[in-house]
Protein backbone atom coordinates (compact mmCIF):
# COMPACT_ATOMS: atom_id res chain seq x y z
CA UNK A 1 0.00 0.00 0.00
CA UNK A 2 1.03 3.64 -0.40
CA UNK A 3 1.92 5.71 2.67
CA UNK A 4 -1.46 7.45 3.09
CA UNK A 5 -3.35 4.14 2.79
CA UNK A 6 -1.02 2.63 5.39
CA UNK A 7 -1.63 5.56 7.73
CA UNK A 8 -5.41 5.27 7.42
CA UNK A 9 -5.33 1.53 8.04
CA UNK A 10 -3.09 1.92 11.08
CA UNK A 11 -4.89 4.75 12.84
CA UNK A 12 -8.48 3.52 12.46
CA UNK A 13 -10.28 1.12 14.75
CA UNK A 14 -13.23 -0.91 13.47
CA UNK A 15 -15.66 0.10 10.76
CA UNK A 16 -17.19 3.54 10.31
CA UNK A 17 -20.78 4.29 11.29
CA UNK A 18 -23.13 6.57 9.41
CA UNK A 19 -26.59 8.09 9.64
CA UNK A 20 -28.92 10.11 7.44
CA UNK A 21 -30.66 13.16 8.92
CA UNK A 22 -33.63 15.05 7.52
CA UNK A 23 -34.50 18.21 9.44
CA UNK A 24 -37.12 20.87 8.75
CA UNK A 25 -36.46 24.37 10.07
CA UNK A 26 -36.24 25.39 12.78
CA UNK A 27 -33.78 22.69 13.85
CA UNK A 28 -30.44 22.17 15.57
CA UNK A 29 -28.44 19.05 16.39
CA UNK A 30 -25.81 18.89 19.12
CA UNK A 31 -22.76 16.61 18.80
CA UNK A 32 -21.08 16.02 22.14
CA UNK A 33 -17.29 15.72 22.49
CA UNK A 34 -15.99 12.17 22.08
CA UNK A 35 -13.30 9.98 20.57
CA UNK A 36 -14.94 9.57 17.16
CA UNK A 37 -14.14 11.82 14.23
CA UNK A 38 -17.18 13.14 12.40
CA UNK A 39 -17.72 13.79 8.71
CA UNK A 40 -20.84 15.59 7.51
CA UNK A 41 -22.02 16.03 3.93
CA UNK A 42 -24.78 18.53 3.13
CA UNK A 43 -26.99 16.59 0.70
CA UNK A 44 -29.70 19.26 0.39
CA UNK A 45 -30.51 22.59 1.97
CA UNK A 46 -27.98 24.43 4.12
CA UNK A 47 -26.93 24.78 7.75
CA UNK A 48 -24.54 26.44 10.17
CA UNK A 49 -21.63 24.97 12.09
CA UNK A 50 -21.77 26.25 15.66
CA UNK A 51 -18.80 25.95 18.01
CA UNK A 52 -17.78 27.92 21.09
CA UNK A 53 -14.26 28.16 19.64
CA UNK A 54 -15.13 29.93 16.38
CA UNK A 55 -17.61 32.12 14.55
CA UNK A 56 -20.63 30.36 12.95
CA UNK A 57 -19.76 28.87 9.57
CA UNK A 58 -22.27 28.54 6.74
CA UNK A 59 -22.44 25.14 5.02
CA UNK A 60 -24.18 24.69 1.66
CA UNK A 61 -25.20 21.84 -0.64
CA UNK A 62 -22.24 19.60 -1.42
CA UNK A 63 -20.06 21.00 1.36
CA UNK A 64 -18.13 18.54 3.52
CA UNK A 65 -17.23 19.13 7.17
CA UNK A 66 -14.66 16.91 8.90
CA UNK A 67 -14.08 17.03 12.66
CA UNK A 68 -11.00 14.85 13.29
CA UNK A 69 -10.48 15.47 17.01
CA UNK A 70 -13.88 14.72 18.48
CA UNK A 71 -14.64 18.31 19.48
CA UNK A 72 -18.13 19.26 20.58
CA UNK A 73 -20.18 21.32 18.12
CA UNK A 74 -23.65 21.73 16.65
CA UNK A 75 -25.26 21.95 13.23
CA UNK A 76 -28.40 24.07 12.84
CA UNK A 77 -30.53 25.87 10.28
CA UNK A 78 -29.85 29.15 12.15
CA UNK A 79 -27.39 30.09 14.92
CA UNK A 80 -30.30 30.82 17.29
CA UNK A 81 -32.29 27.63 16.70
CA UNK A 82 -32.88 25.28 19.67
CA UNK A 83 -30.64 22.21 19.84
CA UNK A 84 -31.33 18.54 20.47
CA UNK A 85 -28.79 15.75 20.88
CA UNK A 86 -27.79 13.71 17.85
CA UNK A 87 -29.71 10.47 18.30
CA UNK A 88 -30.36 8.49 15.10
CA UNK A 89 -32.28 5.24 15.19
CA UNK A 90 -32.44 2.23 12.91
CA UNK A 91 -35.44 1.27 10.79
CA UNK A 92 -36.32 -1.88 8.86
CA UNK A 93 -36.49 -0.11 5.50
CA UNK A 94 -33.72 2.53 5.53
CA UNK A 95 -30.15 1.50 4.58
CA UNK A 96 -28.69 3.75 7.31
CA UNK A 97 -29.78 4.89 10.75
CA UNK A 98 -32.16 7.85 10.46
CA UNK A 99 -32.88 11.02 12.41
CA UNK A 100 -35.81 13.27 11.54
CA UNK A 101 -36.76 16.65 12.97
CA UNK A 102 -40.18 17.83 11.89
CA UNK A 103 -40.94 21.46 11.27
CA UNK A 104 -42.61 23.87 8.88
CA UNK A 105 -39.53 25.30 7.18
CA UNK A 106 -36.96 24.29 4.59
CA UNK A 107 -35.62 20.74 4.86
CA UNK A 108 -31.90 20.03 5.14
CA UNK A 109 -30.51 16.55 4.59
CA UNK A 110 -27.15 15.47 5.95
CA UNK A 111 -25.01 12.37 5.81
CA UNK A 112 -23.23 12.02 9.16
CA UNK A 113 -20.34 9.54 9.25
CA UNK A 114 -18.15 8.59 12.19
CA UNK A 115 -14.67 7.10 12.28
CA UNK A 116 -12.91 5.86 15.39
CA UNK A 117 -9.16 6.43 15.61
CA UNK A 118 -6.77 4.71 17.99
CA UNK A 119 -6.63 7.10 21.00
CA UNK A 120 -3.53 5.40 22.39
CA UNK A 121 -1.55 5.80 19.17
CA UNK A 122 -2.79 8.78 17.10
CA UNK A 123 -0.85 9.19 13.87
CA UNK A 124 1.08 12.49 13.51
CA UNK A 125 -1.08 13.27 10.47
CA UNK A 126 -4.04 13.78 12.81
CA UNK A 127 -2.13 16.35 14.84
CA UNK A 128 -1.67 18.42 11.67
CA UNK A 129 -5.40 18.67 11.08
CA UNK A 130 -7.39 21.63 12.44
CA UNK A 131 -10.42 21.09 14.67
CA UNK A 132 -12.74 21.65 11.70
CA UNK A 133 -11.92 20.90 8.07
CA UNK A 134 -14.38 22.64 5.75
CA UNK A 135 -14.28 21.57 2.11
CA UNK A 136 -16.78 23.77 0.23
CA UNK A 137 -18.18 22.89 -3.15
CA UNK A 138 -16.12 24.57 -5.87
CA UNK A 139 -16.34 23.90 -9.57
CA UNK A 140 -13.30 21.97 -10.78
CA UNK A 141 -11.94 21.24 -7.30
CA UNK A 142 -11.60 17.84 -5.61
CA UNK A 143 -13.38 15.89 -8.32
CA UNK A 144 -12.90 12.52 -6.56
CA UNK A 145 -14.45 13.84 -3.36
CA UNK A 146 -17.35 15.34 -5.31
CA UNK A 147 -17.93 12.04 -7.10
CA UNK A 148 -18.03 10.19 -3.77
CA UNK A 149 -20.51 12.74 -2.38
CA UNK A 150 -22.73 12.38 -5.45
CA UNK A 151 -22.66 8.58 -5.22
CA UNK A 152 -23.57 8.69 -1.53
CA UNK A 153 -26.46 11.06 -2.23
CA UNK A 154 -27.69 8.90 -5.09
CA UNK A 155 -27.67 5.71 -3.02
CA UNK A 156 -29.56 7.42 -0.18
CA UNK A 157 -32.15 9.05 -2.44
CA UNK A 158 -32.77 5.93 -4.53
CA UNK A 159 -31.92 2.75 -2.58
CA UNK A 160 -31.58 -0.25 -4.89
CA UNK A 161 -30.34 -3.82 -4.74
CA UNK A 162 -26.85 -3.67 -3.23
CA UNK A 163 -27.26 -0.28 -1.52
CA UNK A 164 -26.61 -1.75 1.92
CA UNK A 165 -23.28 -3.10 0.64
CA UNK A 166 -22.38 0.03 -1.31
CA UNK A 167 -22.97 2.61 1.43
CA UNK A 168 -20.42 1.30 3.98
CA UNK A 169 -17.78 1.10 1.24
CA UNK A 170 -18.55 4.67 0.09
CA UNK A 171 -18.46 5.98 3.67
CA UNK A 172 -15.12 4.21 4.07
CA UNK A 173 -13.75 5.89 0.92
CA UNK A 174 -15.09 9.29 1.96
CA UNK A 175 -12.45 9.62 4.68
CA UNK A 176 -9.64 9.02 2.18
CA UNK A 177 -11.01 11.62 -0.24
CA UNK A 178 -11.48 14.17 2.55
CA UNK A 179 -7.87 13.77 3.68
CA UNK A 180 -6.61 13.92 0.09
CA UNK A 181 -8.56 17.13 -0.52
CA UNK A 182 -7.24 18.76 2.65
CA UNK A 183 -3.66 17.73 1.86
CA UNK A 184 -4.00 19.13 -1.68
CA UNK A 185 -5.22 22.47 -0.32
CA UNK A 186 -2.20 23.03 1.93
CA UNK A 187 0.46 25.54 0.83
CA UNK A 188 3.69 24.12 -0.56
CA UNK A 189 5.80 25.61 2.24
CA UNK A 190 3.74 24.12 5.08
CA UNK A 191 5.65 21.68 7.30
CA UNK A 192 4.08 18.45 8.49
CA UNK A 193 2.48 15.55 6.68
CA UNK A 194 0.99 17.67 3.93
CA UNK A 195 4.55 18.51 2.92
CA UNK A 196 5.91 15.03 3.69
CA UNK A 197 3.56 13.33 1.23
CA UNK A 198 4.55 15.81 -1.50
CA UNK A 199 8.29 15.67 -0.92
CA UNK A 200 9.87 12.97 -3.13
CA UNK A 201 12.83 12.31 -0.83
CA UNK A 202 10.80 12.08 2.37
CA UNK A 203 8.09 10.03 0.67
CA UNK A 204 10.70 7.59 -0.64
CA UNK A 205 11.99 7.03 2.89
CA UNK A 206 8.51 6.73 4.38
CA UNK A 207 7.59 4.20 1.72
CA UNK A 208 10.57 2.03 2.67
CA UNK A 209 9.76 2.27 6.38
CA UNK A 210 6.13 1.34 5.78
CA UNK A 211 6.80 -1.46 3.31
CA UNK A 212 9.74 -3.03 5.12
CA UNK A 213 9.63 -2.29 8.87
CA UNK A 214 11.49 -5.56 9.44
CA UNK A 215 14.62 -4.23 7.74
CA UNK A 216 17.52 -3.04 9.89
CA UNK A 217 17.33 0.52 8.65
CA UNK A 218 19.99 3.11 9.34
CA UNK A 219 19.77 6.82 8.58
CA UNK A 220 22.41 6.32 5.89
CA UNK A 221 20.42 3.51 4.23
CA UNK A 222 17.22 5.57 4.20
CA UNK A 223 19.14 8.59 2.90
CA UNK A 224 20.42 6.47 0.02
CA UNK A 225 16.86 5.49 -0.90
CA UNK A 226 15.88 9.17 -0.69
CA UNK A 227 18.76 10.21 -2.96
CA UNK A 228 20.32 12.58 -0.41
CA UNK A 229 23.38 12.71 1.77
CA UNK A 230 22.93 11.39 5.30
CA UNK A 231 23.09 14.84 6.90
CA UNK A 232 20.81 16.52 4.36
CA UNK A 233 18.26 13.72 4.58
CA UNK A 234 18.17 13.63 8.40
CA UNK A 235 17.68 17.40 8.56
CA UNK A 236 14.99 17.42 5.87
CA UNK A 237 13.05 14.45 7.26
CA UNK A 238 13.05 15.79 10.82
CA UNK A 239 12.02 19.30 9.75
CA UNK A 240 9.09 18.06 7.66
CA UNK A 241 7.83 15.03 9.58
CA UNK A 242 8.52 16.36 13.07
CA UNK A 243 10.46 13.27 14.15
CA UNK A 244 13.84 11.77 13.32
CA UNK A 245 13.95 8.99 10.72
CA UNK A 246 14.72 6.31 13.30
CA UNK A 247 12.24 7.83 15.75
CA UNK A 248 9.45 7.51 13.20
CA UNK A 249 10.65 4.01 12.27
CA UNK A 250 10.25 2.93 15.90
CA UNK A 251 6.85 4.63 16.12
CA UNK A 252 5.64 2.81 13.00
CA UNK A 253 7.00 -0.56 14.14
CA UNK A 254 5.23 -0.27 17.49
CA UNK A 255 2.00 0.84 15.82
CA UNK A 256 2.12 -2.18 13.52
CA UNK A 257 2.96 -4.45 16.44
CA UNK A 258 -0.04 -3.24 18.43
CA UNK A 259 -2.31 -3.82 15.46
CA UNK A 260 -1.02 -7.37 15.00
CA UNK A 261 -1.48 -8.06 18.71
CA UNK A 262 -5.09 -6.87 18.51
CA UNK A 263 -6.08 -8.43 15.20
CA UNK A 264 -3.98 -11.58 14.71
CA UNK A 265 -2.94 -14.73 16.52
CA UNK A 266 0.73 -14.39 15.53
CA UNK A 267 3.22 -15.36 18.20
CA UNK A 268 5.25 -12.65 19.91
CA UNK A 269 8.35 -13.98 18.16
CA UNK A 270 6.69 -13.70 14.75
CA UNK A 271 5.54 -10.14 15.50
CA UNK A 272 9.03 -9.26 16.71
CA UNK A 273 10.50 -10.55 13.44
CA UNK A 274 7.91 -8.61 11.40
CA UNK A 275 8.89 -5.42 13.22
CA UNK A 276 12.64 -5.75 12.88
CA UNK A 277 13.56 -7.03 16.34
CA UNK A 278 16.06 -9.85 16.59
CA UNK A 279 14.64 -11.28 19.79
CA UNK A 280 11.35 -11.46 21.64
CA UNK A 281 13.05 -9.81 24.62
CA UNK A 282 14.17 -6.75 22.62
CA UNK A 283 10.72 -6.42 21.11
CA UNK A 284 8.94 -6.71 24.46
CA UNK A 285 11.23 -4.10 25.97
CA UNK A 286 10.61 -1.64 23.11
CA UNK A 287 6.86 -2.28 23.19
CA UNK A 288 6.58 -1.72 26.94
CA UNK A 289 8.56 1.51 26.56
CA UNK A 290 5.99 2.74 24.05
CA UNK A 291 2.74 1.42 25.55
CA UNK A 292 3.54 1.02 29.23
CA UNK A 293 2.58 -2.67 29.27
CA UNK A 294 4.12 -5.88 27.98
CA UNK A 295 2.86 -7.10 24.59
CA UNK A 296 1.19 -10.20 26.06
CA UNK A 297 -0.78 -8.11 28.54
CA UNK A 298 -1.68 -5.60 25.82
CA UNK A 299 -3.08 -8.43 23.67
CA UNK A 300 -5.08 -9.94 26.54
CA UNK A 301 -6.55 -6.53 27.45
CA UNK A 302 -7.34 -5.57 23.86
CA UNK A 303 -8.98 -8.86 22.97
CA UNK A 304 -10.76 -9.28 26.27
Automatic annotation (TrEMBL):
<dbReference type="InterPro" id="IPR032783">
    <property type="entry name" value="AraC_lig"/>
</dbReference>
<feature type="domain" description="HTH araC/xylS-type">
    <location>
        <begin position="203"/>
        <end position="301"/>
    </location>
</feature>
<dbReference type="GO" id="GO:0043565">
    <property type="term" value="F:sequence-specific DNA binding"/>
</dbReference>
<dbReference type="InterPro" id="IPR020449">
    <property type="entry name" value="Tscrpt_reg_AraC-type_HTH"/>
</dbReference>
<dbReference type="InterPro" id="IPR018062">
    <property type="entry name" value="HTH_AraC-typ_CS"/>
</dbReference>
<dbReference type="Pfam" id="PF12833">
    <property type="entry name" value="HTH_18"/>
</dbReference>
<keyword id="KW-0805">Transcription regulation</keyword>
<protein>
    <submittedName>
        <fullName>AraC-type DNA-binding protein</fullName>
    </submittedName>
</protein>
<dbReference type="InterPro" id="IPR018060">
    <property type="entry name" value="HTH_AraC"/>
</dbReference>
<keyword id="KW-0804">Transcription</keyword>
<keyword id="KW-0238">DNA-binding</keyword>
<dbReference type="Pfam" id="PF12852">
    <property type="entry name" value="Cupin_6"/>
</dbReference>
<dbReference type="InterPro" id="IPR009057">
    <property type="entry name" value="Homeodomain-like_sf"/>
</dbReference>
<dbReference type="InterPro" id="IPR050204">
    <property type="entry name" value="AraC_XylS_family_regulators"/>
</dbReference>
<dbReference type="GO" id="GO:0003700">
    <property type="term" value="F:DNA-binding transcription factor activity"/>
</dbReference>
Amino acid sequence: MDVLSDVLTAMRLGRPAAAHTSSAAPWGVRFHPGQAAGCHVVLSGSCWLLSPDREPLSLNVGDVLFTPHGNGYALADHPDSPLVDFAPSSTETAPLDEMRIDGSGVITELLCAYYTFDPARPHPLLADLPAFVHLPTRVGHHSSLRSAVELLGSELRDPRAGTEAALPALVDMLLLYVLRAWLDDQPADRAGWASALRDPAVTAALRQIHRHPEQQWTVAALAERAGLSRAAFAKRFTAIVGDTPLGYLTWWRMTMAARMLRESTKSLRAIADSCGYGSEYAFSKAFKRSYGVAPGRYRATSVG
